Amino acid sequence: MERNKEIYKVTLIGGAVNIVLLLFKFVAGIMGHSAAMVADAVHSLSDFVTDIIVLVFVRISGKPKDKSHDYGHGKYETLAMTLIGVALLVVAIGIVYSGMVKIGAWMGGQQLDAPDMLALWAALLSVVLKEAVYRYSMIEAKLLNSQALEANAWHHRSDALSSIGTAVGIGGAIFLGRRWTVLDPVASVIVGLFIIKVATDLLRNGIGDLMEQSLPDEVEQEILQLAASVPGVAEPHDLCTRRLGNHYAIELHILMDGDIPLSEAHDKASEVEALLRQHYGESTHISVHVEPK
């Protein structure tokens, strides 16, 4: 429960920053005649929506296991990360499309409105605030081992980077003259492409975990080495692993002397479980099957 409270606190801080920025960006984008800033404001709006997703799903994932969820509710946190990836991807595609339409109009001879300094100041403020929230969120995500919080941290970082691109485009359009007003939508397209990359990474990881993707090879090798380090245990094999939200699920078979008492074999298996839980956390789901050699 304490973990969930910390996640709520971090998410609420990020949400407060997002509300301030999205309002300021929309005003600055409209009054400052900047397509890139309006796109950036939409991105901040998606940040706020994902903050809500994190708050809802982390609360659900923190529930203990029950009759209908023998493995707990950890997958809801992975689902939150996946939904954040979807939200990012939708926003990014919209940003790229809008920018391409404006670039096409400029190439057809249409004169684009030049943004003004209000839009530039909004972009610079966004860079500073969102990078600060990213660093804070990522530190807490690592400490709390939260997939959803880490995904949301990357959402903050993508907003900071998009604001850098926005600032460059707006600054170029302002200071290089009306011939270069196309830099504003060009910046929005570049930002959109970057966000698509971040979104696809989140989706790949989230969908992989939801589809019972195994843990990385290096983690599985470490599990086998730890099991084999227990005296009397030989040839750990048939290892099956997956993620349950922010926890691991580990199932494996081990060989022992077939002549030892059942109670001794049970104690050795329990020793393997205790060693793995000590290494990967008390909430790790572990199942050890003993076979005679």
From TrEMBL:
Pfam families: Cation_efflux (PF01545), ZT_dimer (PF16916). Keywords: Membrane, Transmembrane, Transmembrane helix, Transport. It is found in: Membrane. It is a multi-pass membrane protein. One of its GO terms (cellular component) is membrane. SUPFAM superfamilies: Cation efflux protein cytoplasmic domain-like, Cation efflux protein transmembrane domain-like. Residues 13-211 form the Cation efflux protein transmembrane domain. Residues 215-292 form the Cation efflux protein cytoplasmic domain. It comes from the Bacteria. Its main location: membrane. The chain crosses the membrane at residues 12-35, 41-58, 79-98. GO terms for molecular function: monoatomic cation transmembrane transporter activity. InterPro entries: Cation_efflux, Cation_efflux_CTD, Cation_efflux_CTD_sf, Cation_efflux_TM, Cation_efflux_TMD_sf, CDF_Transporter. Belongs to the cation diffusion facilitator (CDF) transporter (TC 2.A.4) family. This is Cation diffusion facilitator family transporter.
